[in-house]
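Input record (one chain):
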Amino acid sequence: MPAIRVAVAGATGYSGEELIRLLLDHPEVHLTCLAASAKWERPVPASQVFPRFARRLDLAVEALDLPRLAERSDAVFLALPHGKATELVPSLLAAGKRIVDLSGDFRLRDPTLYPQWYQFTHAHPELLTDGRVAYGLTEFHRQEIAAARLVANPGCYATSVLLGVLPLFRAKLLEEAQIIVDAKSGLSGAGRKADETLLFTEMTENLRAYKVNEHQHMPEILQDIERLTGQQASLTFVPQVIPVSRGLISTIYVKTRRSPEEVAAAFEACYPPAQAPFVRVRRGSLPQLKDVVGTNYCDIGIAAHPAGGVMVIGSALDNLTKGAAGQAIQNFNLMHGFSETAGLR
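The corresponding structure, as predicted from the sequence alone:
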């Protein structure tokens, strides 16, 4: 079978660069189009934009042009700012393309939530509940993803938190559906952009909370818990940015009087290695960033709780890989009938 012709729109961002890095080693992929923003002035060899790809990639990065994107591809990864994918997706679907969207444009099923959480009015609300569209939390939506024409790739925080709590909800181990999350992410989670708050002198030797209980990944977390378990949860969410380039850890506090052994068993039953190759469960210790950075793994650890019944779950991943490009390729693999691990090991 010939390789799938693949385009990456948003190729100059951090997630776009990570997509290129991984797709270059994918045995079933032929990269055929790299697009930046529509304001990109002229074609520039990818090896000049990213010298790390010299002698590996001879494509040019070009201005985003929808007809050219569709003509040169069978499948498209959209790694664009929020609000941009909605302008492209209808035409790409009509042209028969399979799409993985890394933005938040199709994650929420309720169109009325977009002005509050993403600051735009959704231009195509009919697609949010279209049967061709799947939410791309790979470990829990495999069948939908395999049949989808468009996959809404989850947010990095949402991936970490959902993988860390869904086994507890499914096994009915929680005393109450209340989740408290203290999450810390590297600077690349904010994207490649000029922002004074992300300058080296602002962030080195610093840690800063932001968007406390206002982060856009919150509604997709609550949406998927309810959709998969029928339970309405409450979420207290404190995201923080730390002075590292990549990596994300969610420290999750839940109320249960079950033993750590029972909880660990529930996670291991939910993520057997043969069926969940990129989720690693550990007993008795919490993961570190260095365990997962540069990989597509999400590592989950369970810590013993005191008499009060609050248990601590640690969920660590690389925000650019399992939290973005790596999971997007997992979903691409399922959509095309490839091994889920293709290009990721």
